[in-house]
Amino acid sequence: MRTPFLLVTRSCKAIHRLQHSAFVSPVSALYRHQTISVLRNSSTVSCKDDRSYYITTPIFYVNASPHLGHLYSAVIADCLHRYKLLQGFNSKFATGTDEHGLKIQQAAEAAGKDPLTFCTDVSERFKHLFNSCNISYTDYIRTTEQRHHQAVKHFWSVLWNKGLIYKGSYEGWYSTQDESFLTALQVGDAVDSSGNEIKVSLESGHKVEWMKEENYMFRLSAFRSQLLDWLKGNPRAIQPEIFYQVVLKWLQEDLPDLSVSRQRSRLQWGIPVPGDAEQTIYVWLDALVNYLTVAGYPDIHNQWWNVAHHIVGKDILKFHAVYWPAFLLGAGLPLPQTIYVHSHWTVGGKKMSKSLGNVVDPLERSKQFTTDGMRYFLLRQGVPDSDSDYTDDKAFKLLNAELADSLGGLLNRCTAPALNPAQIYTAFCPQSFPSEQGGRAVGEDYHMLEAVKNLPAVVEQHYESMHVYKALEVISACVRQTNGFVQRHAPWKLERSDITDQRWLDTIIHVSLECLRMYGTLLQPVVPEISDKLLSRLGVQPDERGLADVNFLPKIRGMDCPFEGRVLGSDTGVLFTRLDNLDIDKQNPKKTKKAKK
Ligand code: ME8
């Protein structure tokens, strides 16, 4: 039974190596693409059923409404999920809400609602945002669900039965806002808005309080060397690398045992410790187990749990890269394959906060910029390694330049009735554009073809490492090159009555449509609606949109092009309507002004 699986795995690796070699050697002949494409096709067939992929977002606290940063976490995960589906993986994608803990208990009290009603209301707001923004989750988990309670209790019992949890007492700092315990070194002095001296977390800036209570402790200290071994043996387990280094550093410092419960008298809103009704399970232990709950823990989690990848913001790295792997090692479960970490969005250079009045509502913005516009902006401008700054002005300029003018303009040119009166995928003429120079195409045109041919491998590498902005950067550069190609040869100036001119005109359009087909296919994970519109207009059917089908410009290699001669799709609508920034200012005068300060 084992051999076929190994064979499949090896063949997938071989394909990956080949794709990589195509990327590092851009001078490769156009023929090589064909080889890769055939292999890709076979890889999809042979690996499909064996290739599962499980991606998660953090589950979001329901103490406040969703903001731009939350949507960012979800859009990154959605992009990777869609990309894996395009590669032929069987992908599972979980998101949801984190509903227990003191912070939620207090927020519900302040709202005058019972906690569950309060959680349901806010959880629905997250769900609504994600549905509106095409976040194609396959499971939406709420920690108040029964299936999750069962998973957490089971997980706790496993740790308890292994002697990894003991009754002790905790004395130290606690931040309710972060639901986190802190050492004296992590705490500093500050003054609150009423002028009172307070202690705050140096990392988050949130207020901390001294607490002393009897509770259960997890033997975190016992896992330090195992965690170090894991990371040293898996240098790509935490990406980007700067965050991997941060975690290594943490593990070289003191790693005290961790309090994993709170007294029920202080925290009622949570899952009781099995066998001790006086204690409530610590909200982070409860929350982290959500990833297992969705995988089907404790009964049927193996298929998904072996292939888990987490997307997390930088502020919750320690919980995911230290506590969570330690809990999993304790429970005898595999560790996540990758923890992808992203940095934060600031607004006008400042941290988003209610008191500054600069919280960006992603739902409102996605109505102004369109859902795909919002997704494109976040992924094009969001850099995982460092914080990115949001302004409306940046968004509208970027979207107008890259989606409306560059990509939309290119489609318009190739499909305009003036240049393409038959409204078809025009024919490619090998005499006009031979595989080696000698026809009417010039050196720059061959460079463009080389860049577009290599695009899938380059984009794939960037998607795999969560550097989506780099993938979009190279796609955008290719779109510009294709516009340059059209501009250079000015097909509108060609003499249609001359048969060679007509053939060259058709070839220019054919090559541009092939480029657009590549862009539409590769952009699907980022802008699914725009890509659908683009590919439909090119007449590319839904079953021709996988990464294995992307075979670029086969005619130049003397092969058939299945699209040549096809009638274009009938939707002639604009791909992305130019945004008017005055509209944004009018609709949202106060917030826009503040954001620009
Ligand atoms: O931390 N920019 O939930 P959360 C980008 N419930 N991302 C941001 C951001 C910003 N300005 N602000 C927050 C929790 N985020 C826990 C997770 S998982 C088992 C439990 C990101 O609602 C943040 O980094 O406070 C995190 O990844 C996510 O939003 C959820 O934050």
UniProtKB/TrEMBL annotation:
GO MF term list: ATP binding; methionine-tRNA ligase activity
Chief location: mitochondrion
The protein's name in its UniProt record: Methionine--tRNA ligase, mitochondrial
NCBIfam families: metG (TIGR00398)
PANTHER family: METHIONINE--TRNA LIGASE, MITOCHONDRIAL (PTHR43326:SF1), METHIONYL-TRNA SYNTHETASE (PTHR43326)
Residue span, Methionyl/Leucyl tRNA synthetase domain: 53-414
Keyword Protein biosynthesis: yes
UniProt-listed Enzyme Commission number(s): 6.1.1.10
Keyword DNA repair attached: no
Localization in the cell: Mitochondrion matrix
Enzyme kind, highest EC tier: ligase
InterPro entries on file: Anticodon_Met, Met-tRNA_synth, Met-tRNA_synth_2, Methionyl/Leucyl_tRNA_Synth, MetRS_core, Rossmann-like_a/b/a_fold, tRNAsynth_Ia_anticodon-bd
GO CC aspect terms: mitochondrial matrix
Catalysed reactions, as listed in the record: tRNA(Met) + L-methionine + ATP = L-methionyl-tRNA(Met) + AMP + diphosphate
UniProt entry keywords in alphabetical sequence: Aminoacyl-tRNA synthetase, ATP-binding, Ligase, Mitochondrion, Nucleotide-binding, Protein biosynthesis, Transit peptide
SUPFAM superfamilies: Anticodon-binding domain of a subclass of class I aminoacyl-tRNA synthetases, Nucleotidylyl transferase
